Amino acid sequence: MAAFLHLVKGDSAALAGAVIESNLREADARVTVVLLDGAPAPPLPARVAVRRLAPGDLDYVGLLDLIFAHDHVITW
User: Fold this and answer.
1) Using alpha carbons only, what angle is made at residue 12 by residues 57 and 2, rounded to the nearest 5 degrees?
2) What is the value of pTM for the model shown?
């Protein structure tokens, strides 16, 4: 099972959406999206885990944990 982590900045949300959809087509793929710097979430299927690097959701230690927990890390 492949695990993909997408780190999305504000100016990249639209472009990232198509690649995320492609990742989901892989058998048993797990996809997590972390929105950086107040980035808007692209339209995503319900099975994508969305986190925000912000107080009350995800801090830098949590982000580092996610990076090591995924096979592929894609930055936008």
Assistant:
1) 65
2) 0.90
**Residue type for position 14:** A
* Amino acid at the residue 3: A
d(CA 13, CA 42): 5
d(CA 59, CA 70): 17
Q: What is the pLDDT of residue 48?
A: 95
Cα distance between residue 32 and residue 7, in whole Å: 9
SS3 content of the chain, % helix, strand, coil (to 5): 35, 30, 35
Can you tell me which residue has the tokens 């959406």? 17
Report pLDDT digits (tens) over 38-72.
Answer: 888 888 888 999 999 999 999 999 999 999 999 99
Q: How many residues does the chain have?
A: 76
